[in-house]
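Complex 534.
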Amino acid sequence: MSQPPCDQTAAWHQLQTLFNARGRDFDLRQAFLEHPQRSSAMAVEAPMVFGDLSKHLWDDGIRDALIALAAERGVAERRDAMLRGDAINTTEHRTVRHAALRTPAGAPTDDASAALARTEAAKFLAYAEQIRADGKITDVVNIGIGGSDLGPQMAVVALHPHVTPSIRFHFVANVDAHDLDTTLSGLNAASTLFLVSSKTFGTRETLVNAQLAMDWARAQGVTDLPAHFVGVTANPEAARKHGMGTVFQFWDWVGGRYSMWSAIGLSIAIAIGKDGFQAMLDGAHAMDRHFAEAAPAQNLPMLLGLIDVWYRNFHGFGSRSIAPYHHGLRRLPAYLQQLEMESNGKWVDRDGHPMAVGTSPVLWGEPGTNGQHSYFQMLHQGTDRIPVEFIVVAHPDHPHAASHRTLLANALAQSRALMIGRSLEEVLADAGPAPSDEVIAVSKQRAFRGNRPSTTLLIERLDPKTLGALIALHEHRVFTSAAVWGINAFDQWGVELGKTLALDVEARMTDPGRSRADLDSSTASLMHRLESMA
Ligand code: F6P
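Predicted structure with 6-O-phosphono-beta-D-fructofuranose bound:
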């Protein structure tokens, strides 16, 4: 059903009024002074994730107005439509059922899709256990890109202490064969298992790499190639045609960037085992129930999605920095980039009307504390304000309590420093009486304006269950902002043009006799220059 643009709603106008009255100049330091209970009042407990939302440029009234916006935009109705299996991906006429992949039997949203998912999960989890038990495989290489790479890779890296030590895991995504060559050098084909992961089984990068991997295995003397190649796909026929000996399936109702819960997570299942994988699904399901059932004011994914709208559209913040204070979460920013930017990087709404307001922010980041010694300068003193998302893990999986305390202290200190800043007066107080013009100029450069917002997400430990909850939290937060904006978060037409043109350019490079007259002069002359360098 068509909707008016989001900025034409009563709640949006109300938010604009609030922004003009107190949002634009909202002072966090003042807010904490005036409301000593602010921290607890703005804390949200979700399953396995505690959210501190107090260091945001909002108050109860702004939060209530954002919740009213969610109501006016039908966020809860759209959420329910997704969970019950309506075809909300309207450009592809598909349902959106990643939550069904983690729905246990008997849960409120259990249905035929969830049952199908459990049947397939039983198969690929049994296969994973078999690989772990028989001891013949020393290396698993996942070949896939985008959602067929980022989720599994992020999770296997994050869950390192839970990963079997007897198998090494590798992820090859790039069609740049340096990626594959580097990975394969030193591997023994006889004990290597390739998981060729592709929803469509038509992605050029993946097919090119799979072919190279097959050539390599053959050259190493492997005769039973199909035994070393497993396909994971929603297109089993194509996988078999490409020589996959074993095929695990998922379905078109699972978006690529939402697919790590399906057989696409086979590398995770081999890495952490059946029970670990099930725990990850259970964590995600717990977050699904929270998203479905918690009241908006206590609904962490919903509130995060609404804060994202508040910052993107009212404050005009164009990006968000992800700062996971855990070495294991070093691939999380890359994972979240696809999740959010491929979902919400849309310029028209579901009715095809151009958006009058901005959609997906740019997401970027590095694990703490590394980022502090690089771009945090800009976060603290740059001209743009960029909300930061700190992800803090209470218990490490190593025995070095003191260094973990240092890590935690840095996370807390950074969010505090961003907020409190350091005024010119404070800096000058150190300079003694009657500072010279030069001292004043230097002091200005040493001052921090502060009032820079951040979220802190706190988890007990980084284990499969908690990781599942953390990732589902982000899926639903992206859903929430998309629902407010009225865009389709589940297609990705924006990647198609580049794919088509790459095929065209490649065909022209393969056959230099083909006319280039219709190409723009930049592309044609770059092609020519590359040829002259060959
Ligand atoms: O090009 C974008 C994309 O379609 C992503 O949405 C997807 O995750 C990725 O390519 C890989 O696609 P596939 O799993 O079909 O190989």
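The chain has a mean pLDDT of 97.
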